[in-house]
């Protein structure tokens, strides 16, 4: 295998809803913070305005991450999900999933690794469906339904 032994991706789902507006808002906040620092820092010594610039940079980083990164990657025998830039990947075998709770805005998956005692508390992963475009959300739910047993799904309010 020339790709380092990785299995090819079967399906990638992205959470891009709102990312473009976050980029615009982050850019505006960054420009406003630069303007305020340049204009008022010399007059009043307002060094605390830098927090606005930091917020703008964080907003830009998160929105670009949303556009570029897959939220859920479905592979042959497992799926991988990364719910935030600073959080690690969850790589879960389909056979490890014990329960899936679905409502209109959230998909909550509970899983227990095979090498963990059966009495151990399952790990929970929350995937926000309202951050996905409608077609991406439908593809994500359909992919989980196709790969997991019906008995693990539970619809919640």
Secondary-structure class: alpha+beta
Q: Globular, elongated, flat, extended or rod-shaped: what is the shape? A: elongated
Q: In CATH terms, what is the fold-level topology of the largest domain?
A: PH-domain like
CATH homologous group name of the largest domain: Pleckstrin-homology domain (PH domain)/Phosphotyrosine-binding domain (PTB)
> Biggest β-sheet: count, sense, barrel?
4 strands, antiparallel
Summary, kept brief:
This protein has 157 residues and is an alpha+beta fold.
What does this structure look like?
The chain crosses the membrane at residues 21-40, 46-65. Keywords: Membrane, Transmembrane, Transmembrane helix. This protein is an alpha+beta fold and 157 residues long. The chain has two domains: 16-68; 72-155, PH-domain like. The chain has three helices and eight strands, in the order βααββββββαβ. The chain has helices at 19-44, 50-68, 134-147; strands at residues 11-13, 72-74, 78-81, 90-93, 97-102, 106-111, 123-128, 153-155. A four-stranded antiparallel beta sheet has the order 1-2-3-4, with helices on one face. α1 runs antiparallel to α2. The radius of gyration is 20 Å and the shape is elongated. The protein starts with 10 loop residues before the first strand and ends with a strand. The mean pLDDT is 84.
Topology:
Blueprint: E1 11-13, H1 19-44, H2 50-68, E2 72-74, E3 78-81, E4 90-93, E5 97-102, E6 106-111, E7 123-128, H3 134-147, E8 153-155
Parallel strand pairs: 5-8
Antiparallel strand pairs: 1-2, 2-3, 3-4, 5-6, 6-7
């Amino acid at each position: 295998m020339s790709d380092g032994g990785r299995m090819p991706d079967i399906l990638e789902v992205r959470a891009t809803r709102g990312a473009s507006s976050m980029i615009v808002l982050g850019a505006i906040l960054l420009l406003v913070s630069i303007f305020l620092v340049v204009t008022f820092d010399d007059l009043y010594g307002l060094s605390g305005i830098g927090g606005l610039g930091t917020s703008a940079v964080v907003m830009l980083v998160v929105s670009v991450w949303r556009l570029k990164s897959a939220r859920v990657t479905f592979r042959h025998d497992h799926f991988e999900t990364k719910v935030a830039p600073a959080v690690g990947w969850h790589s879960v075998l389909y056979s490890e999933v014990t329960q899936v709770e679905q409502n209109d805005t959230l998909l909550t998956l509970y899983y227990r690794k095979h090498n963990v005692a059966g009495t151990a508390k399952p790990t929970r992963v929350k995937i926000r469906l309202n951050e996905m475009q409608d077609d991406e959300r439908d593809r994500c739910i359909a992919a989980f339904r196709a790969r997991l047993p019906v008995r693990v799904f539970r619809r919640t309010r």
